[in-house]
Amino acid sequence: MSVHARIETEEDVQIIKEYTLLPILLDMLARDMEELKVYKDKIVYNHILFYLREVETAIYPQLQSIKSVMKKRDIKVIHTEMNALGINVEYKVRGYIHHFTMLRSLVKAELMTTLMNMRGGLR
């Protein structure tokens, strides 16, 4: 095994980040759909619900694809912890344990970017 195979790459970190953020996005969508039930008598309700379900449906294949890539690259998420400051992730890349933290503001920005990118792909 070469030395470079042991070093985590920027692409590895991006994969871990996406794998961490997509379930959070799914939770947010589920919460929002539940909260929107208050407006179910409004005309726009079904339109918004349709869009949110479309986004939710698009996330699952993405998550499966990421899991497949992680398996091929020998990447495993060991532990994810959410707290008031953000998210702490402990993961293993090709046998070596690494950590990273994302502040809440970065999580929010990344989720908004992901949603905007998905919006372009859903049209």
UniProtKB/TrEMBL annotation:
It comes from the Bacteria. InterPro entries: YhjD-like (IPR058600). This is Uncharacterized protein.
